[in-house]
């Protein structure tokens, strides 16, 4: 009986037959600064939790974790280079931020080291043919989020969008977020306005541009969103003729019930304005194991007694993602070894992390054939205007690209009312357009490179870069893809 069990175990788990212990060097790039949702203190407990859980399943995998700061842009890639003089790591987790990730992933791909990150969400990283070949993205990228919009545009027959982007010129999260939306909407008229955090709201320009569009998609801080919604409400643009969205993927406390509330005299207007604002966010799922996980994470961060963040114990997408990264890697390594390859064959291991579905800590994780996670998103809308309360009205599943409509869903909300019959879009030659009134910089695409240059020259008064694309034009004069790559490159080398 016993020997039968052993035999079964041996056939089920061939690694057990090879009882040589595998020492796996894991280099983790995360910032120390706890103002990031993916700081070491927040994420490391999740990685350790996974490490612990894996000892039962893969007893001869010994993971040794080394946490490496990545607080400044080049710190991460220099650390990787220095460390690798002696011994290259077997696995890299992180970095999250785009500019660090670009440098680290390029070097790691060259050295045949697998990288799994819950970040590197920008569009450029989907290019796995060459420089980002060893990158696996365990959290849904911005491109996956953007699918929600292309699916909605198709479903509701919308035709035009205005992207309002608050760009901090540092992390540039909002810029990268809506860049992806821009990217997937080839078939629609899309215009974008970029503004800085510090400048006062240019409401006239913004309102004028809203009038020319059907759908407004915003990514900005919560206060800025409120300002824009109040301004739009004042001009009666929240009467159903325009559809407003904001994208807020990570910070659960900043959307939903009461996000309009500030305790000032504008609360009432804001509540009414937000009645036409929909929020796109990550779909949250829970399963029993997850509760235990989040309790453990909270305990670990409490033990550290972090004082510089109040919500450090909260589990977010990055915390979950890096946990699941460990599971995914272990399974892939196991598969690679079963095929007779060693842990040093990063290409082989990476290939086993793509095009599979596995059970993550919060639910099923499905990786597409390009090594990017399929994303699930929720659409939230105000369902009770008196109370100003929000509910999830629909979910979008990336794996089968379908919507699940909830009982609170009301399709009337997404119908554009009383316009456009007599307002056909005039076709325009896009490459002649796009001159920013203030800077005089001509912009050919939604791009980092030119904007960055503009920023250095006009740091004080840079404000709005307008560029537009009209229906049916050539796919962006062939410049877009290239510039996008440049944006990552030039920024990482400039800093
Ligand atoms: C592997 O297993 C064999 C037999 O079970 C044992 O003799 C050997 O010492 C083990 N090797 C290691 C490295 O544990
Ligand atoms: C942490 O990051 C925030 C936001 O980027 C910054 O304001 C703060 O100075 C940083 N703290 C430290 C200790 O570097
Ligand atoms: C999350 O949102 C809240 C409320 O808007 C804000 O105070 C907080 O700074 C945000 N946190 C992060 C990490 O963005
Ligand atoms: C939760 O996890 C801890 C440690 O990982 C374990 O000891 C405990 O049994 C788990 N509890 C449940 C309910 O699974
Ligand atoms: C790594 O694996 C690939 C197959 O995925 C194989 O073609 C290659 O020869 C292997 N490299 C080494 C050094 O074993
Ligand atoms: C992806 O996986 C499916 C099912 O596991 C398989 O049929 C398909 O051939 C795979 N595609 C690639 C490109 O490997
Ligand atoms: C908002 O409040 C309503 C009613 O109190 C509740 O049903 C809903 O779940 C809440 N939504 C969020 C996101 O908390
Ligand atoms: C799509 O996938 C989700 C999640 O896996 C599932 O709940 C849903 O039923 C699927 N929908 C269709 C139409 O297959
Ligand atoms: C809403 O307001 C806009 C601009 O003031 C106007 O053009 C439109 O006809 C109004 N729509 C409805 C349904 O009242």
Written account of the structure:
This protein has 495 residues and is an alpha/beta fold. The protein folds into two domains: 11-140 and 287-366, Rossmann fold (3-Layer(aba) Sandwich), CATH 3.40.50; 143-282 and 377-489, Response regulator (Rossmann fold), CATH 3.40.50. The chain contains 15 helices and 16 strands. It has helices at 2-12, 14-17, 40-57, 75-84, 98-110, 142-156, 173-184, 203-211, 222-234, 267-274, 288-304, 317-338, 346-353, 448-457, 480-494, and strands at residues 22-30, 61-69, 91-93, 115-117, 135-137, 160-167, 189-196, 215-219, 243-247, 277-282, 357-359, 364-366, 376-384, 389-397, 402-405, 465-469. It has a nine-stranded mixed β-sheet, sandwiched between helices. It has a five-stranded parallel β-sheet with strand order 2-1-3-4-5, sandwiched between helices. Helix 3 (40-57) crosses helix 11 (288-304), helix 3 (40-57) packs parallel to helix 12 (317-338) and helix 6 (142-156) packs across helix 7 (173-184). The protein starts with a helix and ends with a helix. The model is unreliable at 4-12, 421-467 and 470-495 (pLDDT under 50). The site of one 2-acetamido-2-deoxy-beta-D-glucopyranose (NAG) has 5 residues, from helix 13.
Indicate how many domains the architecture comprises.
2
Radius of gyration (CA) equals 24 Å
Quick one: CATH superfamily of the largest domain?
Answer: Response regulator
Label the overall shape. Answer: elongated
């Amino acid at each position: 009986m016993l020997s039968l069990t052993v035999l079964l175990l041996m056939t089920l788990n061939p690694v057990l037959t090879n009882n040589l212990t595998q020492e796996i060097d894991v280099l983790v790039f995360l910032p120390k600064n706890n103002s990031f949702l993916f700081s070491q203190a927040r994420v490391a407990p999740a990685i350790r939790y996974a490490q612990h859980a894996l000892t039962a399943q893969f007893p001869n995998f010994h993971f040794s974790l080394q946490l490496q700061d990545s607080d400044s842009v080049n710190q991460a890639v220099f650390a990787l280079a220095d460390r690798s003089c002696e011994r290259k790591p077997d696995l890299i987790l992180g970095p999250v931020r785009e500019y660090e990730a670009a440098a680290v992933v390029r070097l790691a791909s060259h050295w045949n080291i697998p990288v799994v990150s819950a970040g590197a969400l920008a569009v450029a990283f989907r290019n796995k043919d060459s420089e980002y070949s060893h990158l696996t993205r365990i959290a849904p990228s911005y491109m996956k989020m953007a699918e929600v919009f292309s699916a909605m545009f198709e479903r509701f027959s919308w035709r035009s969008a205005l992207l309002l982007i608050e760009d901090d010129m540092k992390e540039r999260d909002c810029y990268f977020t809506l860049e992806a939306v821009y990217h997937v909407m080839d078939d629609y008229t899309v215009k974008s306005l970029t503004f800085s955090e510090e400048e006062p709201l240019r409401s006239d320009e913004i309102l004028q541009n809203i009038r020319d569009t059907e759908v407004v998609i915003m990514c900005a801080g919560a206060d800025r969103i409120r300002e824009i919604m109040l301004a739009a409400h004042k001009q009666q643009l929240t009467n159903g003729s325009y559809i407003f969205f904001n994208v807020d993927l990570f910070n659960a406390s900043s959307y939903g019930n009461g996000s309009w509330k500030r305790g000032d005299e504008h609360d009432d207007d804001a509540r009414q304005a937000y009645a036409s604002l929909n929020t796109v966010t990550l779909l949250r799922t829970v399963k029993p194991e997850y509760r235990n996980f989040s309790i453990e994470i909270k305990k670990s961060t409490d033990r550290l007694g972090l004082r510089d963040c109040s919500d450090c114990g909260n589990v977010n997408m990055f915390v979950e993602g890096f946990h699941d990264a460990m599971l995914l890697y272990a399974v892939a390594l196991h598969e690679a070894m079963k095929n007779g390859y060693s842990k040093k064959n990063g290409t082989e291991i990476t290939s086993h992390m793509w095009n599979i579905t596995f059970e993550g800590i919060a639910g099923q994780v499905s990786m597409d054939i390009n090594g990017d996670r399929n994303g699930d998103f929720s659409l939230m809308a105000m369902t009770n205007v008196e109370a100003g309360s929000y509910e999830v009205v629909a979910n979008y599943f990336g794996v089968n690209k379908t919507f699940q409509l909830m009982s609170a869903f009301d399709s009337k909300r997404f119908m554009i009312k009383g316009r456009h019959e007599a307002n056909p879009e005039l076709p325009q030659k896009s490459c002649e357009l796009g001159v920013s009134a203030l800077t005089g910089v001509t912009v050919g695409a939604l791009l980092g490179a030119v904007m960055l240059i503009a920023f250095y020259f006009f740091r004080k008064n840079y404000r709005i870069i307008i560029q537009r694309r009209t229906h049916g034009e050539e796919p962006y004069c062939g410049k877009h893809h290239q510039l996008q790559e440049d944006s990552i490159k030039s920024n990482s080398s400039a800093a």
